[in-house]
């Protein structure tokens, strides 16, 4: 047996980039100290810090639970828990998201593992879409981000569940197994190393997207003229579409997106609901992960349809609640 030599080459990752940005801020602050004292910059910093600090505990807790489920929960559990009939397995798989916390970063590999185990892809895909949106951590974060608005929590759970089940049933009707190409599954040497590796990777990865989302939300609230946002928000259909597309572009982890949505007060409640429903199901990082897990042919078909179904579900549920 020949021993493999570990690759010791270093690449610049998110930690190095963050350290560089912090050093740059310290240097720039010394040169342009007066700029940091202006009301606009201070307001921007207040909005940004409040979003990140509120969301960070839920993000850390969510990725830890996601890693624990992916590593320690046997795959046979899902096989035994789901009904044999695919049409019933889809809502059952979507419902497991209510009791199995996890962010979208963890749901994609778990769904791939379920397909490898022989579970119908429709049920695995329903779980993939449902788990990041209706799990207890995300709903608790939503309740804190929208205090005194229990309707937002219920609407998010219902709209996300409906969209997940609808996509599973659509796959049963029109999906094709040859669209899915799963890569070889690689096992870790120990479960604990796999757990800490997965949790650490997801925390750094998702934390980076949270920072980007916080920067974007703070910038929108401070720098974009209020009359522009108000003009967009006053149009019911454009506001929904705008925030749905914003959710795709920002790619914020589902444990943190409610705090960003809550800050977009110019927009209607239904538009912000669309932001919360679309984000955990369709965004740039999810599309990349789906390409890597299921293949490009799958992702190019699945993501656009999911976007349409998620927006339609949010609008329909929003019309009932508000």
From TrEMBL:
Name this protein carries in UniProt: Permease
Record has Cell membrane as a keyword: yes
Keyword annotations from UniProtKB, A to Z: Cell membrane, Membrane, Transmembrane, Transmembrane helix
Lineage: Bacteria, Bacillati, Actinomycetota, Actinomycetes, Pseudonocardiales
Localization, UniProt: Cell membrane
Family: Belongs to the UPF0718 family.
Transmembrane segments: 12-32, 44-73, 122-146, 153-172, 203-224, 236-252, 298-321
Membrane topology annotation: Multi-pass membrane protein
Family matches, as InterPro entries: DUF318 (IPR005524), UPF0718 (IPR052923)
Superkingdom assignment: Bacteria
